[in-house]
């Protein structure tokens, strides 16, 4: 199997899914949009469920890498949280995050079909945000703080996507991020 061709197809399939959603995801429309045969997609991705898992993995990877690039190497918690918010609240990213929340909801209803997604949806960010608090932070405190950051940012993003009220949600996000920055300035986590 040509890994570069698979990677190119995967990125195109992810872009298609972000634009069209995953509820109607099927071989023929995706293949037609990409100018390939359905057989080509099956060859590269296996079953429809395997393709969806691969799409979700790539989407998660894109989100994580883009945010990590914005935050820089070994950011503190406030810098990491601000990088996450800056990327997720960017209107250009909204289709990606609409897909994210659609999958999240479906995964909660059918956890056996989305095991990999559910295993990583919190764990990836949890690990990065715990690490961002430094080695001297009590592990239980670091975990609680990371959980609060994840829940707050995801809640704000869900509110933003649902209402489109950028001014109100951005003001709230700035207030939250300021508390993290103040905590960092005073030596807390």
TrEMBL record:
Alphabetical list of PROSITE patterns matching this protein: HTH_TETR_2
Residue range(s) of DNA binding per entry: 26-45
Record's keyword terms, sorted: DNA-binding
UniProt keyword annotation of DNA-binding present: yes
Domain of life where this protein originates: Bacteria
Segments forming domain HTH tetR-type: 3-63
PANTHER family assigned: HTH-TYPE TRANSCRIPTIONAL DUAL REGULATOR CECR (PTHR30055:SF146), HTH-TYPE TRANSCRIPTIONAL REGULATOR RUTR (PTHR30055)
Protein name: TetR/AcrR family transcriptional regulator
Source organism per UniProt: Sphaerisporangium aureirubrum
């Amino acid at each position: 199997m040509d890994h570069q061709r698979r990677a190119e197809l995967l990125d195109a399939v992810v872009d298609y899914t972000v634009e069209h959603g995953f509820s109607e995801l099927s071989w023929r429309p995706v293949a037609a949009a990409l100018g390939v045969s359905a057989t080509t997609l099956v060859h590269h991705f296996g079953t429809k469920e395997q393709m969806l898992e691969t799409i979700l993995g790539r989407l998660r990877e894109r989100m994580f890498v883009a945010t990590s690039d914005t935050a820089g190497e070994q950011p503190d918690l406030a810098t990491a949280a601000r990088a996450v918010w800056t990327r997720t609240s960017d209107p250009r990213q909204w289709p990606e995050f609409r897909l994210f929340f659609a999958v999240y909801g479906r995964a909660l209803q059918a956890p056996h079909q989305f095991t990999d997604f559910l295993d990583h949806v919190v764990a990836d960010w949890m690990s990065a945000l715990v690490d961002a608090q430094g080695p001297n932070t009590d592990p239980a405190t670091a975990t609680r703080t990371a959980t609060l950051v994840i829940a707050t940012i995801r809640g704000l993003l869900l509110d933003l996507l649902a209402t489109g009220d950028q001014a109100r949600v951005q003001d709230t996000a700035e207030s939250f991020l300021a508390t993290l920055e103040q905590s960092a300035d005073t030596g807390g986590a």
